[in-house]
């Protein structure tokens, strides 16, 4: 059983994942690192909105950014995050 602190952190993580825009950003970054501009253009969002969501996702350690010249490319933090997203997407698509 997780500690109370870990349970609170997990609940906050699930709250962050409850936003469809943040989930779209995570799924878009699942296959390859993406810049804010690429994310904004592909998902038809403003760059400021994407940056806001990425700040929250970084704070929850769901994504990490890697600087390359003047741009930062965002990717999922680790296999735990990508595996959880893939598993939940598969679960949603399963037949009852």
Note down, in words, how this protein is organized.
The chain has helices spanning 4-17, 20-28, 36-43, 47-59, 79-93; strands at residues 34-35, 63-68, 71-76. The protein has a three-stranded antiparallel beta sheet with strand order 1-3-2. The protein has one domain (4-93): Arc Repressor Mutant, subunit A (Orthogonal Bundle), CATH 1.10.10.10. Helix content is 61%, strand content 15%. The chain is globular and about 45 Å long. With 96 residues, the chain is α+β, with helices and mostly antiparallel strands. Helix 3 packs across helix 4 (47-59). It is built from five helices and three strands, in the order ααβααββα.
**Approximately what portion of the residues adopt beta-strand conformation?**
5-15%
Helices, by number, come to: 5
| Architecture per CATH nomenclature, i.e. the level-2 architecture | Orthogonal Bundle
Summing up helix and strand content along with how strands pair, one would put the structural category as: alpha+beta
Order of helices and strands: HHEHHEEH
Global outline: globular
- Main beta-sheet annotation: 3 strands, antiparallel
CATH domain class name = Mainly Alpha
Task: Give the % helix.
Answer: 55-70%
Arithmetic mean of pLDDT: 95
**Major sheet strand order:** 1-3-2
**Stretches where pLDDT falls below 50 for ≥5 residues?**
none
| Strand segment count | 3
The gyration radius over C-alpha positions equals 14 Å
Q: Do you know the CATH topology?
A: Arc Repressor Mutant, subunit A
Total individual domains: 1
Specify the CATH homologous superfamily: Winged helix-like DNA-binding domain superfamily/Winged helix DNA-binding domain
**Terminus-to-terminus distance:** 29 Å
Domain HTH arsR-type: 2-96
InterPro entries: ArsR-like_HTH, HTH_ArsR_DNA-bd_dom, Metal_resp_trans_reg, WH-like_DNA-bd_sf, WH_DNA-bd_sf
Pfam families: HTH_5 (PF01022)
GO molecular function: DNA binding; DNA-binding transcription factor activity
